[in-house]
Write a structure and sequence with these properties.
The chain has 314 residues and is of the alpha/beta class. The chain contains 14 helices and seven strands. It has a seven-stranded mixed beta sheet, sandwiched between helices. Helix 3 links the parallel strand 1 and strand 2. It binds S-adenosylmethionine.
Length: 314
């Protein structure tokens, strides 16, 4: 089911900043690798000339259908491809443009996905423990992880991906409960977390546990780590990469990647002269990550943890 409210409420995060950093060539080609409902593509279209080209990629077929509907009358809109951004090589083979003036990664999930209870992303609604971005593609669900993974593995993902202090306690409560019955629904998981943490920390713990599961189900950090080094090959010289992340784990990966890419030498300091011949591929344009302004936060609470980093292809 398509949650209409999600699509109506959809506000792309830091859209003004993304457009002003990315849209350097008004007749150019732009690729949103996480196009969601097409909010950033729409914002870009308003700045670009009619002959510019806009492309999208998303793992979520329902989001693609909705984005295509929203972009149908946009002159510069080319297509949205259903795939993971890690497949950028074969995706771009299908496009007219092979290199881009701007590439965007707007990580994580959308309000559209969060508000659809049948996707299981939200602890505020009862739904099946699913959490896959790509429902059509099969693969691991949150239900598989909750009912199948060892207690230690559960504790590890809650701690590592959710930074939840009660990770072990919650993992052990899950294992006790699943010996009695299968844990199939978000409401069951919510009850288990409730029994393991103080009430005043409940919402924060629930948010962390649900975040950790979503990251694990979709291999989000591994995918981010594997796509970043591929991107310089798909940017024109002077083209820009913009990445919006929503938690410190993602942001750290992006920050470290860009720092390494900017270096012109990675030789050990004890060597008298450079032998690595490293060629920097990016120049960082945002020394400190940009964050949303107060006006944006007033209208879009979801933007509150967003961080935007931008770099230019050398
Ligand atoms: C924050 S939303 C993007 C919103 C979009 N920029 C807009 O303005 O409408 C993140 C999107 O990334 C998609 N996504 C997550 N991981 C992905 C991956 N590995 N490959 C492609 N899309 C992915 C999700 O399905 C979701 O639609």
């Amino acid at each position: 089911m398509v949650p209409q409210s999600g699509s109506k409420n959809h506000i792309p995060v830091m859209a003004d900043e993304v457009v002003s950093y990315l849209a350097t060539e008004l007749s150019g080609a732009y690729l949103d690798l996480t196009s969601g409902l097409g909010g950033h593509l729409l914002a870009l279209s308003k700045r670009l000339k009619p002959e510019a080209r806009l492309y999208g990629v998303d793992r979520d077929l329902e989001a693609i259908t909705e984005a295509k509907r929203r972009l149908a009358k946009v002159e510069q809109f080319e297509t949205i491809y259903h795939s993971s951004y890690t497949e950028i090589g074969s995706i771009v083979d299908e496009f007219k443009d092979k290199k881009f003036n701007g590439i965007l990664l707007d990580l994580g999930f959308s309000t559209f996905q969060l508000e659809d209870e049948s996707r299981g992303f939200s602890f505020q609604q009862d739904g099946p423990l699913d959490m896959r971005f790509d429902k059509a593609g099969g693969g691991l669900t949150a239900r598989d992880i909750i009912n199948g993974w060892e207690e230690e593995q559960l504790g590890n993902i809650f701690f590592k991906y959710g930074e939840e202090r009660q990770a072990k306690k919650i993992a052990s409560a899950i294992v006790r409960e699943r010996q009695k019955q299968m844990i199939e629904r978000t409401s069951q998981l919510k009850e288990i977390v409730k029994s393991s943490v103080y009430n005043k920390f409940l919402n924060k713990s629930l948010a962390r546990i649900f975040q950790a599961l979503r990251i694990a189900v979709n291999s989000e950090l591994e995918k981010l780590e594997s796509v970043l080094p591929l991107l310089p090959d798909y940017l024109l010289s002077g083209g820009r990469l913009a990445v919006i992340s929503f938690h410190s784990l993602e942001d750290r990966i992006v920050k470290n990647f860009l720092k390494e890419e900017e270096k012109s030498c990675i030789c050990p300091p004890r060597l008298p002269q450079c032998v690595c011949n490293k060629i920097p591929r990016f120049k960082i344009l945002t020394r400190k990550a940009l964050v949303p302004g107060a006006t944006e936060l007033e209208i879009n609470r979801r933007a509150k943890s967003a961080k935007l980093r931008v770099a230019e292809r050398i």
